[in-house]
Write a structure and sequence with these properties.
mainly alpha, about 70 residues, globular
Length: about 70
């Protein structure tokens, strides 16, 4: 498992560092949306999915859709 290379992401590093310190997940989501563009958050999600898929787990991970559903006006 030491041969797996993971690419750094500012969004993912922020979430990892603040996840245990922030009481409400809703507050963390609000901060992420205020300071990052939706495309950056989407790219971070895709990177997290790809990186977690490259790790060897005993259990198969659930399917996570890659499309972005939401309000097109924002």
């Amino acid at each position: 498992m030491a041969d797996v290379q993971l690419a750094p992401s500012n969004v993912l590093c922020f979430v990892c560092n603040k996840f245990d310190k922030v009481v409400a997940v809703k507050l963390l989501k609000s901060v992420l949306r205020d300071f990052n563009d939706g495309d950056i958050l989407s790219a971070a999600k895709l990177q997290l999915i790809e990186d977690s898929g490259s790790l060897d787990y005993l259990k198969k991970s659930p399917h996570i859709p890659q499309r972005r559903d939401g309000d097109a006006s924002t």
